[in-house]
UniProtKB/TrEMBL annotation:
TauD/TfdA-like domain segment(s): 24-318
PANTHER family in the cross-refs: GAMMA-BUTYROBETAINE HYDROXYLASE-RELATED (PTHR10696), TAUD_TFDA-LIKE DOMAIN-CONTAINING PROTEIN (PTHR10696:SF56)
Protein name, entry field: Taurine dioxygenase, alpha-ketoglutarate-dependent
Keywords assigned: Antibiotic biosynthesis, Dioxygenase, Iron, Oxidoreductase
Length: 334
């Protein structure tokens, strides 16, 4: 559905601004799930065309009401695996947002882009907007790709990228939280099935290594997208004092997580800084109101979060699972 056909719908008010998500002003008359069911196609088309769509007026107040609406707008909710940080379960396959420090920005990224099966759609519901800050940041993945240096893109497209993780019970998700079990055999079976190398450490810790494509083809639009967490999960994105502390405690080879080029070579700090700078150049910000719901095309649009003050209650759902199609298949993807 085109922008013009969306705007012609008599009971929807569509706000369109260049570089920003579509805004649909809902009037559910007390039946938010019914409204979502009736406008499913229009909402989904807006998310595909604009990369994200903000639904304002649903007046969502709790997980149950949010889940009822999200189910009407998606084709299947996912259970998260390989989480880098534990989330608090909110029931009905929803969770509370990642407990990232309020005074630090969450850099732009694509959810679970290091997994083989990823959410095609993210749903974010605001039950309580913060007093100051806390906007969700968004960036179009195809635009970011076009803005990155051609030689950097070519290398990542050819080699992919590596995620290196060291699981323990101190920082980030534990082994059991990430894989949904503490059974070694089950964890090893999952990792084999998903192309993850494992190395158990003395004391029960686990180190993993996985190679993933950095550039994908969007299955619905055919656009080439920069889709990864190369910068977000790299050690150089951490505040300098945090990086120094982690290296001192865990060593350069035992960091909770970091990323590398697909051939295993470390990524220079200036490359990570450049990627984050390109993201920032193409970032738009969505400020929240209580009761809002936003659907984000996870393949087409990176998301993050600004620092904030005061309570901020956000629910998250991962939906519409897809397996990625890289723009090139050099052999190691098979």
């Amino acid at each position: 559905m085109s922008s013009s056909s969306l705007m012609s719908l008599p009971d929807l008010e569509l706000g369109l601004q260049p570089g920003r998500p579509a805004v649909l002003r809902a009037e559910p008359d007390g039946d938010a799930p019914g409204w979502a069911a009736a406008h499913h196609d229009a909402v989904r088309d807006a998310a595909t065309e604009h990369g994200a769509v903000l639904l304002r007026g649903l007046k969502l107040r709790d997980p149950a009401a949010t889940a009822a609406v999200v189910r009407e707008l998606t084709t299947g909710l996912m259970t998260e695996r390989e989480a880098y940080a534990p989330r608090q379960d909110a029931g009905e396959r929803l969770s509370w947002s990642t407990p990232w420090p309020a005074n630090q920005p969450m850099r732009l990224h694509h959810e679970l882009s290091y997994a083989r099966q990823v959410p095609g759609l993210m749903a974010f519901a605001c039950l309580c907007a913060p007093a100051v800050g806390g906007a969700t940041t968004l960036a179009d993945a195809a635009t970011v790709l076009a803005a990155l240096p051609a030689d950097v893109v070519a290398r990542f497209e050819r080699e992919g990228w590596l995620l290196l993780r060291s699981y323990d019970d101190e920082i980030g998700a534990s082994v059991a939280e990430a894989f949904g079990t503490d059974d070694r055999a089950a964890i090893e079976a999952y990792c084999r099935a998903n192309g993850i190398e494992t190395a158990w450490q003395p004391g029960g810790g686990l180190r993993t290594r996985q190679r993933r494509p950095a550039v994908i083809t969007h299955p619905r639009t055919g656009r080439r997208c920069w889709f990864n967490q190369v910068a977000f999960l790299n050690e150089w994105t951490l505040p300098s004092e945090v990086h120094e502390y982690l290296v001192d405690v865990y060593g350069a080879d035992g960091l909770p997580f970091t990323t590398r080029f697909g051939d295993g070579e470390p990524i220079d700090e200036d490359v990570i800084a450049m990627i984050n700078e390109v993201y920032e150049m193409h970032t738009t910000r969505v400020s929240w109101q209580d009761g809002d719901l936003m659907l984000v095309d996870n393949l087409a649009t990176a998301h993050g979060r600004d620092p904030y003050e005061g309570p901020r209650e956000m629910l998250v759902a991962m939906a519409d699972p897809v397996r990625l199609t890289a723009t090139a298949d050099p052999g190691w993807l098979r």
